[in-house]
Give the backbone structure.
Amino acid sequence: MKRKTIEVPTPPASPKEETPTPPKPAKKRRRWILPVILGGVAAFLLAVAAVIAFFFLLPSDLPFKPDTSLIPVYDGKKWGYIDKKGQYVINPQFSDADWFSDGLARVENKDGKYGFIDKKGTYKIPAKYVDATIFNDGLAIVVEECAHPVCINKDGEQVFECTTADGVFCFNEGLAAFYSINDKGERKYGYYDKKGNVVINPQFKYAGTFLDGLAVVSNDEDKYGFIDKKGKYVINPQFDRCFPFFDGLAAFKSGDKWGFIDKEGKYVINPQFDDVDNFYNGVAVVYQGEKCGYIDKKGQFVINPQFEICSGFTYGDGLAYFETDDDKCGYIDKNGKYVINPQFDNAREFCNGIAFVSSNDKWGIIDKKGQYIVNPQFESIKSPYLEIGSCVESEYYDASKFLSSFLKNFSSTKVDGLPTDHVTLEDITNHDVYGEDWEDNLYYSSLTNRLNKEFTNDITLKEVYFSFLSETYEYKYGYYSYDKIYDYSATCGLMIFEFSFENKAEDRFKSICSALCSKLKSIYGGKLSNINEEQDYVFLKKLECGGNLNFIINGEYGECLLGVFFDEDTFEESVKALTEEIASENTDYEYDDEPVAEEAVEIADDDWDL
């Protein structure tokens, strides 16, 4: 059957909160990333393309034959489970739900966290993971916020931690593929065994799931071949694309055409088809132009190309679905005979004697005679073949490089009690995303942490805010996650490292900013200058230290903002944008409340414990 397009989920819109009208001009948080919005949009588009491309490289044909005694269905609001008679066994309550595998099913709760339930609907493993694979070979791979992927058993116990991996796939035949991202931003794939040993080192540009003792891999030249469980090439990389072995044959692509090889790498069916599926039960779907039919293992057509879309005889039930020119689906046998006439709007493979079909946008279940066992009534029913959780990505990020770069000239080896030589984003953030506009967060990949750390009796570190040159931290699959492929250079990849200070005595914000300027200049040197002619409610200065370390100090309405720039171009663009913004603002404000007090006494440098 034709490969289906993977849809990237659209995140929910962020709720908007009403802001009370202040008795003075509305505060404007002058985020330094505004001048690079076009770069952010480009990064976003690149990231979406990469996500889609990544999904097309996932092992697309996994050998899981699900337990159809319980069927995941969607009622339009929640997912639940029915039996083959259509009766609910587990009431709708989940945001997502998978088929049962190894006696457990992966489900998603209302908070977007994954766990595993038994057939009574009881959580056997709590929903606390931001992502998880299904169980296979008695193991699953899970990941918590800001953490490495972890392999667990069916009791939820940790078997091993995947500290060397940025992404880990399902186990099958005792091995799990994983990838790591090197300093050049390249993904390299290897394999874990069930004890967490790296039995095949990361070296491939792509590596698939082991099936029948072999796995598809590709090299740096994008040529595909097959390895055994020792990592040795059994079939040298020479093809433009390969599928796993099924029924003793594997599909391969050479140029623009597809054919099939045996396990010795010999051509059994020469490349001649526009697209193909795997062999199942002796036949395979192939495409010639816009039509598909079926061939045997000699490459001879047993059912001529005549369908718009058709499936393989995947699970051995003897029937495959097809789609006609008028977009109606039915089922045929291996002779091409219509067993169930085309009458459905959509259809999926038969598995264990039942199939899922839709009519008038509702899904039901039929038997092999085409009779409804369960009338169409559900918004969706999971496909037993395609929709299986197969990979999780790491949430761990070591922030020590850019923290060490910023703090290298401080006498202390710690900041706010955290060691600078090994600090993660988990240590310094609470995994929330800053800002009112969801799109800004997606483009700018920003993190925040409300620390409320008191430096003096009236000065508090309010939050820490990170912005990256590319989309390192993005909204994917219903939650925010880190993807190191977009920020492999760490220090130079970080654009801004920003502090927000709050002063309990509003009249002192200028003196706070001035003291901060003095402190920074004493540590880093550089040229300190105004961004604007100081106004009553705004204090903006810049400290140019040269290269990729520069500062902007912003004071407004009793708050102080320090932006640390690790990108010189962004710093210069931000200074220009801020200057233009301030010059365009109307400064003739009148207040009904009491006037701001005179400038307070400056804070001594040694009062700041950064």
Notes: The chain has a mean pLDDT of 75.
